[in-house]
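Why do we bother with holo predictions? Because pocket geometry can differ from the apo form. Keep that in mind while you read this record for zinc ion.
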Amino acid sequence: MTSTLFENADILDGRANGAIHGHVLVEDGAIKEVSDTPITAASARRIDLRGRTLMPGLIDAHVHVIASMVNLGQNAMLPDALIAFRAAGIMNAMLMRGFTTIRDLGGATQGLRMARDEAHFEAPRMVICGKAISSTGGHSDARGRLDMRDNAWVEGRLGCLGRIADGVDAMRRACREEIKAGADFIKIMANGGVASPTDPIAFLGYSRDEMLAAVEEASLAQTYVAAHLYTDQAIARAVECGVLSLEHCNLIEEATARKAAMAGAIACPTLVTYEALRNEGASLGLPAASVAKIDDVRLAGLGSLEKMQRAGLTMAFGTDLLGEMHRHQSEEFVIRGRVLPAIEVIRSTTIHAAKLLRMEGRIGVVAPGAFADLIVVEGDPLSDLALLTHQGQHMPAIMQAGRFVKDQL
Ligand SMILES: [Zn+2]
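The structure, written out:
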């Protein structure tokens, strides 16, 4: 097995308040040694990284790899084979932006992950929830008001990112089916949404009993529930029911953020998607009913970051982009940098995201025993977060499991 020795790197993973100068030995797909003094490894390829930053591969904790179109109702109609190939392309582009791990919040399947693991295409590590679970008329019900068809016929399709479950028993069954099919965690829609036709943002989606059932089912399988959430009321209810992964959170208030922090929850804001939807949504086919809802959540975005930061609520990095907008993925760093210290933004995509994915110590750190998922950045991202944008242009190297997927060194 090949080994690689990175020398004289500024190592930045967010565990300290800045970069640490040192040397990193990669062997057999893992990080073998990290040292502030030179490492001897006779057979290793030596790479001098003076003036460059070595970071763990980035983690995006909220994506939808099967969302190949902005109009999710139309996306669900596309043939599975087309969706699969498009998803492979979407994931490959994520990897080439430096994201070596993604958590999919609705749509990615065990089959896609097997195809990735069999190396039919190069893509980030995948943490998946299968289909997101929604109430009738909730955020993954793409049927319009006049569409009275049963939803089941569309739920088997790869391009459909959610399924419907109403009532405690149906919720339990849906959770068990997703876990059986390979879900690493459960995703529920516990608030109205932008990209769905009949649920204003303030709608609460699920009763407490239904949410408690999902949380119990997840805990039986030794995992957790992530919930789609915007309003303060919806977030507070979800936290009370034991939901630990709080998606979006645009309209959170500080007291609820404190309560969430106390409960050990982690928030996963996704501000870039609202900017992209506002700028490009209508022209890319977002229905008018959805366009009208964008600013209900977009305008509160930056303020929500400040509230969560003040409340001590841990935030992971997420993007939630759809279709052609995926290319904006890395702009989330710059958006957050407008109100948060750069080191906090870095932590969101390294240690905080690793914690949310329950993969602490294996991803998001440059430390012995972690996967050798690494990126090299020209310059210092702490002084310019935009170095992480531009489709990986400022990343001369991207390594996954010890193997370069990009190597311009
Ligand atoms: Zn989402």
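The pocket of zinc ion is lined by residues 62, 64, 105, 320 (CB under 6 Å).
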